[in-house]
């Protein structure tokens, strides 16, 4: 018995230390992972302050001599501010249009009964197999026939419908108690009023999460705007970064200018992500379930 109690006391003394060591190892691994993921952003920030000569000096990893002048050059000489405005307008229109259309579609799928309801829902999900890059050629022909080429409608219209957003809203609406629907019917509440006064207030977190995902997705669009927009002044910020690659000095690419543009292009989605990160995490958790 004495030997057993001695062993238990020894285990009790050792166990907290083992737990602390394990926690330290886990936290150390997390710190290293965060550093490795943030290293490209850190290098971009450093290179955005350097001139061309300093960028090509591999051993030079400190703040450059240009300071904020590269940012002033990008915004002034390369009209990058206009590209930012174009991207903001495009992204906001896509977010508002996609969320609105998806809410109405989810409302119809959950609270209305019509023939081939499940088949319609499956067809909506099948559209996930046909993203915009896959249907660029027929989509370009359609835009040309509609006369939407080189317009705001051309870069926003193809992204308004979203099977992912419809699916998320449908699943969320299905989790709302049926008693609310019955009470609304008894009170004579119409579908639009029910959507506005009941469903939307109960879905604010989901709407915010979908809006964040949609905004970042729209902000990062490159291929379709590059193809459909012929006027450079109407281009978006991702295509604007490509224009910066033409900047050269003595035959060398001015990476300081490019990195300054990349950092500026990162700010709006980063701000949205920081402000709305909690609803986004809730939305991703629901999507994984």
From TrEMBL:
Subcellular location per the Swiss-Prot or TrEMBL entry: Cell membrane
Membrane-related topology note: Multi-pass membrane protein
GO cellular component, one term: plasma membrane
Entry's family note: Belongs to the binding-protein-dependent transport system permease family.
Protein name: Carbohydrate ABC transporter permease
Matching Gene3D superfamilies: MetI-like
InterPro entries, sorted: MetI-like, MetI-like_sf
Domain ABC transmembrane type-1 positions: 84-276
Spans through the membrane: 24-47, 88-112, 119-140, 152-173, 194-219, 255-276
The entry's keywords: Cell membrane, Membrane, Transmembrane, Transmembrane helix, Transport
Keyword Cell wall biogenesis/degradation among record annotations: no
């Amino acid at each position: 018995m004495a030997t057993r109690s001695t062993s238990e006391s020894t285990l009790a003394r050792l166990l907290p230390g083992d737990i602390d060591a394990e926690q330290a190892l886990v936290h150390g691994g997390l710190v290293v992972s965060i550093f490795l993921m943030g290293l490209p952003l850190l290098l971009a920030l450093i290179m955005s302050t350097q001139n061309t000569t300093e960028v090509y000096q591999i051993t030079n990893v400190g703040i450059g001599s240009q300071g904020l002048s590269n940012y002033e050059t990008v915004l002034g000489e390369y009209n990058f501010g206009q590209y930012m405005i174009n991207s903001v307008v495009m992204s906001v229109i896509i977010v508002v249009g996609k969320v609105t259309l998806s809410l109405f579609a989810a409302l119809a799928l959950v609270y209305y009964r019509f023939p081939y309801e499940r088949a319609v829902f499956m067809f909506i999900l099948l559209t996930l197999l046909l993203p915009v890059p896959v249907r660029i050629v027929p989509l370009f022909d359609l835009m040309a026939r509609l006369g939407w080429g080189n317009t705001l409608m051309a870069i926003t219209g193809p992204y308004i419908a979203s099977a992912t957003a419809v699916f998320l809203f449908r699943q969320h609406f299905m989790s709302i108690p049926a008693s609310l629907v019955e009470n609304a019917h008894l009170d004579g509440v119409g579908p639009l009023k029910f959507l506005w006064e009941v469903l939307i207030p109960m879905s604010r977190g989901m709407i915010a999460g979908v809006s964040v995902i949609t905004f970042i997705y729209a902000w990062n669009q490159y291929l379709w705007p590059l193809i459909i927009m012929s006027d450079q002044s109407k281009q978006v910020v991702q295509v604007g970064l490509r224009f910066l690659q033409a900047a050269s000095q003595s035959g060398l690419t001015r990476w300081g200018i490019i990195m300054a543009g990349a950092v500026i292009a990162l700010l709006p989605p980063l701000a949205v992500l920081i402000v709305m990160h909690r609803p986004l995490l809730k939305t991703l958790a629901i999507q994984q379930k």
